[in-house]
Amino acid sequence: MGSILPPLSLPLHLAAAAVAYSRVHTGVHYPGDTIAGALLGTAAATVVRRAASR
Fold it and tell me: Which end of the chain is more exposed for a tag (fewer CB within 10 A), N or C?
């Protein structure tokens, strides 16, 4: 959404970071889990965005 609506980019990134922090802080996930999830999510979004633009 951040690439489609640039004003939402920062708030969305901050929200995602807050959720990732809360998952580690509450002991639900390890830090590596949240980092891997962020990388996987970013890669998936990139693939979908590029496929949709074709």
Answer: C
pTM: 0.78
Phi-psi region of 30 (alpha: psi -120 to 50; beta: other; left: phi over 0): beta
Range of the domain at 46: 6-53
Whether residue 3 contacts residue 49, with contact meaning beta carbons closer than 8 Å, is answered with yes
Enumerate residues 6+ apart whose C-beta is below 8 A from 13. Answer: 2
Encode the chain (54 residues) as per-residue pLDDT tens digits.
777 899 999 999 999 999 999 999 999 999 999 999 999 999 999 999 999 988
Q: Is residue 32 part of a domain?
A: yes
